[in-house]
From TrEMBL, chain B:
One example GO MF annotation: peptide transmembrane transporter activity
A single cellular component GO annotation: periplasmic space
Keyword Signal found: yes
Name by which UniProt lists this protein: ABC transporter substrate-binding protein
Keywords: Signal, Transport
Signal peptide: 1-24
Residue ranges constituting the Solute-binding protein family domain according to the UniProt record: 82-438
Organism in which the protein naturally occurs: Streptomyces calidiresistens
GO biological process terms, semicolon-separated: peptide transport
Xref: Pfam families: SBP_bac_5
Length: 369, 534
C-alpha cells in the first residue's frame, strides 16, 4: 500500500513545473518566503480581458453547433413527443385527438429551420414553452437556476478545498499515515457512483442517525426557505456531490506536490535552508497545483453529470432534475435551452482554468492561449 | 420574495442567481409565505411516485375526480356511486337520453372569492373541447355536442348520441372562468397556480419535489380537519420507503415488497386497495396463430394466474377473468375459469394443432409461435410476460418475449402480442368499448388486439345507449361471457395498490382504484373528510 499509481490522465501533457520566484534576499533574510507574485507584479488585466473576449467570440460557433445538435437529435429521434406529452391519457385517446395534438405541438420546417427560428427568438430572450412542464422555459430556468448554483457551487468549493488540503497532507510523506488513510479512500470514492453514495449517506444520516433530512429543499411541511433550513437540506447532497469530485483534486494535488518535492527548485529551496512549511506551500504546492487548475475546467462537465444524479436522488429542485425530465419527456424546447446552459457552463469552466493557469504560471501568456 | 422570471441575457441569470439564499421555494406563490408551521392545525405529508403534469382541469388534471383543488358537478362515494357536488342533485335526463340538465348550488365561491356560476361550467367544457387545447383526454367527452347555461344555476348538456355513462364524466373539475382570464390554456399560470372551488387551495408547487395544499376554510362542504396536505414527489420506491421510515413522510404508496417491512411497526397501517388496474396480453386478430379461437382459449386456461399473483405481485393482487375486476359490481358471475392445462391441450388437439418434432404445435405448416412485446423498463410487465411464456410453452405454444419502447411496439401491434395495462373502475363502458369494439381496432391506443366480435359490438352499443340500469347490466354480462368464449386478450391480474400510513386518522377508506393512480387515488381520496383519532 505504498505510493499508489499516479492519476495519470494529463500527467504526460502538462508542462514542466515553473521555477517559483525566489528573491535572493529570502535566503539571507531568515526563511520568510513570499510565494505570491512579486510586489511589483500586477495582474495582467488587459491580457485577461482579451482572453475573455476571444473566448466569447469562439463560444458563438460552439454553442450554435451544440444547439443545432439538439435539434438534429430531436428530428432524428424515433420517440414520439405526443405520447410523452399525453402520458397515461394517451391510452384511450383516438387517433384524431393524437393527430390534433401532434399538429398543436409540432414546429414546422426542417430541423435547421426550426433551429434558426429558435436561435432568433433566444437572441431576444424568448426561450419558448416547455411541453412537459406546461410553462415558459424562461420561468423554469429562473425558478431552478439558483438552487443548482447553490448546490454545485458549494460542492465544487468543498471538493477543491478539501481535495487540495488533504492532497498536500498526503504528499508531504508519501506512504505515511495520512497518505495511507486518505489515498485508498479517494480511489474508493472515485469508483463509487454518486447515486450509490447518495443512497448510502441518506440511509446513514437520515435513517440510522436521523441527523439530516433525506431530501428536498425544505422540510416537507414548510414553504419558505430559511438559511438554517437550507443549510440542513443542502448538507447531504452537497457533501455527496463534493465527495464524487474530491478524489480528482486530492489525487492530482498529491501527485503534483509529491513530484514537485523532488524537483530541483524545491531541493534548492531546501538547500538554502527555507522552512519546511515554506518549501511545501510556497514552492512545491505552487508548482504542484498547475495540473489541478487544468482540472477545474475539465471537472465542470462531470460536476453537471453528477448533479443530474444527485438532484434526482435528493429531490433537489434544480436545473439538473429538469434536464432529466426534459430528456425523458422528449421536451425539446426545454432540452435545447438547458443544453445551451450546460455548454456555457463547460466553456466558462475552461476559461476560468486558463485564467487561473496564466496567473499561477508566469511563463504562460494569456495572449497566447 | 418570489424568484422573478428573468428574461434576457443568460449572464444576467448567472449573476442574479448568486444573490438568492432568501428566496422562497421555487413555484411558491408567495401569498402564504409566512404561514409555514403556524397554528395548531393538523397536517399530513404523503409520498407519491408521480406528479401531475399540470394542475389545470382544462388540460386533464383531476378528470376522474378527487382533485382536491376543484369540485366536479358530481363526485363519487366510497362505493364509486355518483353523488351531487357542485350540482344540487343528480342530473335530469330526457327520455331520448340526449339532454342532461344539472341544477347548480348557489352557495359556492371559488377560493379567490368570486362566485361559481353556470358560465364557469360552460367555459370549462367548451375549452376542453376546443381543438387548440392540448388535452389528450378530450375523447372522453366525444358524445358531448354542446353545453349551455340556461340561467346562472342551470346547465344543460346536449349529446350527439345517447350515452348512458355521461354523468360519470361530469366529475370533471370546474375551472374558474374569471381567474383564468385570457391566458394561454396550454402554458399559462393556471397550470401551476389554479383557482378552484375545492376543499384545498394550492399553496405552492415545486416541480419534482412537492405540491403543498392548504385547507379552504370557506369550502361549501365544510373546512377539512387536515389543514395542510403536502404531496411529496419521490419517484424512487426505495427512497420513498426510506423517507417514510425517517419520519419525513406520514404516508406513502409503496410496492408490496417494501410495504411488508412496515407491517409489524406499531403506529403504522398497511392498506391494500383493490383496483381495476389489469395486466393482459393482446392476441391480435389478424395473426394466424393468435387470431385462432382454439389458441386463445387454450392460453386462457393454461396460464397460472394464481402463481403470478403470488410470485410477481407478492400476493397483492387478484386473478383477472376479464377487464372487469371481481370486486366490481359489474363483474359477471360465472365467467371465472379454473386453470386446466390438460383441457387446454385437448382443445388444441381437437382444433388440429399437433405437437411437432421440437415440442411446439403446428397446423397446416403453421407453427404455434408468436412474439410478445412488453415495454422496456417495466419490471412488473416483464415478469408477467415471462410467466405467460413459460405457461404457454407447457402446452406447446412458443412465445418469444421481447422488450421494446412504445415507438417500436405501436406499429407492430397488428400481428404482435403486447403486455397491455389499463383499467377504469367506474363505468364498464369506459374500458370495454375502447378495448373491444371492432370500430376502434387500432385507433390510437384503443383495441390493441384488433378484437372483432359482432356480438360484443352489439352489446357494447346497447350498454352505451340504453339508460335502463338492468339492460345495461345484462349487456355487459353478455360481453364478459363472449370474451370468455373468444378471449382476444388473456387477462392475467388486477393489481392491488399498496399504501403505508401512520395510524392516526378516522374515516380512512379506499375506493376501487384505476390504472392511473396519481393524487386522486389512495386512502387520501377523501382526505377532506378525515378526522383525527382522539
Amino acid at each position: 500500500m505504498t505510493s499508489p499509481a499516479s492519476p495519470a490522465p494529463t500527467a504526460g501533457s502538462r508542462p514542466a513545473p515553473p521555477v517559483p520566484p525566489t528573491p535572493g534576499r529570502d535566503a539571507a533574510g531568515g526563511g520568510k518566503g513570499r510565494p505570491g507574485p512579486r510586489p511589483g507584479r500586477r495582474l495582467p488585466l488587459a491580457a485577461m480581458a482579451r482572453l475573455v473576449l476571444r473566448r466569447l467570440l469562439a463560444a458563438v460557433p460552439v454553442l450554435a453547433a451544440v444547439t443545432l445538435g439538439v435539434f438534429a437529435v430531436a428530428a432524428a429521434s424515433p420517440f414520439d413527443p405526443v405520447n410523452a406529452y399525453a402520458g397515461g391519457d394517451a391510452v384511450g385517446a383516438s387517433q384524431q385527438t393524437l393527430d390534433q395534438l401532434r399538429e398543436n405541438l409540432a414546429v414546422g420546417g426542417t430541423f435547421v429551420e426550426q433551429w434558426w427560428t429558435w436561435l432568433r427568438s433566444v437572441a431576444v430572450g424568448e426561450f419558448g414553452h416547455s411541453q412537459s412542464l406546461r410553462q415558459p422555459v424562461s420561468q423554469v430556468i429562473a425558478e431552478r437556476m439558483v438552487w443548482s448554483l447553490v448546490l454545485c457551487g458549494t460542492a465544487f468549493v468543498l471538493a477543491l478545498v478539501l481535495g487540495v488540503v488533504l492532497g498536500v497532507l498526503a504528499a508531504r510523506r508519501p506512504g505515511g499515515a495520512v497518505d495511507r488513510c486518505v489515498t485508498p479512500v479517494a480511489y474508493l470514492l472515485e469508483a463509487a457512483p454518486p447515486f450509490w453514495t447518495g443512497l448510502l449517506f441518506m440511509w446513514l444520516f437520515a435513517v440510522q442517525w436521523g441527523v439530516l433530512p433525506a431530501g428536498g429543499l425544505t422540510a416537507p411541511g414548510e414553504d419558505t426557505v430559511t438559511a438554517s433550513g437550507l443549510l440542513r437540506h443542502l448538507a447531504l447532497p452537497a457533501l455527496v456531490l463534493a465527495l464524487s469530485q474530491l478524489p480528482w483534486f486530492l489525487l492530482y494535488t498529491r501527485q503534483g506536490v509529491a513530484d514537485a518535492l523532488h524537483e530541483d527548485p524545491v531541493r534548492a529551496a531546501r538547500a538554502r535552508g527555507l522552512g519546511e512549511r515554506t518549501v511545501l506551500l510556497g514552492h512545491a504546492l505552487r508548482s504542484g497545483l498547475l495540473p489541478v487548475l487544468t482540472l477545474i475546467g475539465t471537472r465542470v462537465p462531470e460536476l453537471i453529470t453528477g448533479a443530474l444524479l444527485i438532484e434526482t436522488v435528493f429531490s433537489w429542485p434544480g436545473i439538473a432534475s429538469a434536464t432529466v425530465r426534459s430528456a425523458t419527456a422528449l421536451d425539446f424546447p426545454l432540452l435545447a435551452a438547458l443544453t445551451l446552459l450546460g455548454a456555457l457552463a463547460v466553456l466558462a469552466g475552461n476559461l476560468l482554468a486558463d485564467l487561473l493557469y496564466g496567473l499561477a504560471d508566469p511563463r504562460v501568456d494569456h495572449d497566447r492561449m | 420574495m418570489k424568484v422573478r422570471m428573468m428574461r434576457g441575457a443568460i449572464t444576467a441569470l448567472l449573476v442574479g442567481a448568486l444573490a438568492g439564499t432568501a428566496c422562497s421555494a421555487p413555484g411558491g406563490n408567495g401569498d402564504e409565505g409566512g404561514a409555514a408551521g403556524s397554528g395548531t392545525g393538523h397536517s399530513l405529508v404523503v409520498g407519491i411516485a408521480t406528479e401531475p403534469d399540470t394542475l389545470s382541469p382544462l388540460l386533464g388534471y383531476g378528470k376522474d375526480g378527487n382533485s382536491k383543488i376543484f369540485d366536479g358537478l358530481l363526485s363519487r362515494d366510497v362505493n364509486l356511486d355518483l353523488v351531487p357536488a357542485l350540482a344540487t342533485d343528480l342530473p335530469e335526463v330526457s327520455g331520448d337520453g340526449l339532454t342532461w340538465t344539472y341544477t347548480l348550488r348557489e352557495d359556492v365561491t371559488f377560493s379567490d372569492g368570486s362566485p361559481f356560476t353556470a358560465s364557469d361550467v360552460v367555459f370549462t367544457y367548451e375549452t376542453i373541447l376546443d381543438p387548440g387545447t392540448n388535452n389528450p383526454a378530450r375523447d372522453e367527452l366525444a358524445a358531448l355536442d354542446r353545453v349551455e347555461a340556461v340561467d346562472d344555476h342551470t346547465v344543460v348538456f346536449t349529446l350527439s348520441h345517447p350515452y348512458a355513462p355521461f354523468a360519470e364524466r361530469t366529475v370533471l373539475p370546474i375551472a374558474s372562468e374569471e381567474a383564468f382570464g385570457d391566458q394561454d390554456v396550454n402554458t399559462g399560470p393556471y397550470n401551476t397556480a389554479p383557482v378552484g372551488t375545492g376543499p384545498y387551495t394550492v399553496s405552492s408547487w415545486s416541480r419534482g419535489e412537492r405540491i403543498v395544499l392548504e385547507a379552504n376554510p370557506d369550502h361549501w362542504g365544510g373546512a377539512p380537519a387536515v389543514e395542510r396536505l403536502t404531496m411529496a414527489i419521490v419517484p424512487d420506491d426505495d427512497a420513498r420507503a426510506t423517507r417514510l421510515r425517517a419520519g419525513e413522510l406520514d404516508a406513502a404508496v409503496l410496492p408490496p415488497r417494501l410495504a411488508a417491512g412496515f407491517a409489524d411497526e406499531p403506529g403504522r397501517v398497511v392498506i391494500h386497495a383493490e383496483s381495476a388496474d389489469f395486466r393482459a396480453v393482446t392476441l391480435p386478430t389478424g395473426h394466424p396463430v393468435t387470431g385462432d379461437i382454439a389458441i386463445r382459449r387454450a392460453l386462457d386456461i393454461a396460464v397460472d394466474r394464481e402463481a403470478i399473483v403470488e410470485a410477481v405481485l407478492d400476493g397483492a393482487g387478484a386473478v383477472a377473468h376479464g377487464p372487469v375486476p371481481t370486486a366490481s359490481p359489474w363483474f359477471a358471475e360465472g365467467t371465472e375459469r379454473p386453470r386446466d392445462p390438460g383441457e387446454a391441450a385437448r382443445i388444441l388437439d381437437e382444433a388440429g394443432w399437433e405437437i411437432g418434432g421440437d415440442g411446439i404445435r403446428e397446423r397446416d405448416g403453421e407453427r404455434a409461435a408468436f412474439t410478445l412485446y412488453y415495454p422496456s423498463g417495466d419490471r412488473l410487465r416483464q415478469e408477467h410476460a415471462l410467466a405467460y411464456v413459460s405457461d404457454a410453452r407447457e402446452i406447446g405454444i412458443d412465445i418469444t418475449a421481447e422488450s421494446a419502447s412504445w415507438e417500436v411496439i405501436a406499429p407492430a401491434m397488428d400481428d404482435h402480442a403486447v403486455l397491455n395495462g389499463g383499467g377504469n373502475p367506474t363505468d364498464p363502458d369506459f374500458d370495454l368499448y375502447g378495448l373491444l369494439h371492432s370500430e376502434l381496432a387500432g385507433d390510437g391506443w384503443n383495441n390493441m388486439a384488433r378484437y372483432a366480435n359482432p356480438a360484443v359490438d352489439e352489446q357494447l352499443e346497447i350498454g352505451r345507449r340504453t339508460v335502463v340500469e338492468e339492460e345495461r347490466r345484462e349487456a355487459y354480462e353478455a360481453v364478459q361471457r363472449e370474451l370468455r368464449d373468444n378471449p382476444g386478450y388473456t387477462f392475467l391480474t388486477h393489481i392491488d395498490h399498496v399504501y403505508v400510513m401512520n395510524d392516526e386518522w378516522e374515516n380512512v377508506t379506499t375506493q376501487l382504484e384505476p390504472h392511473d393512480h396519481g393524487l386522486g387515488a389512495g386512502p387520501w381520496w377523501n382526505i377532506e373528510d378525515w378526522q383525527p383519532r382522539s
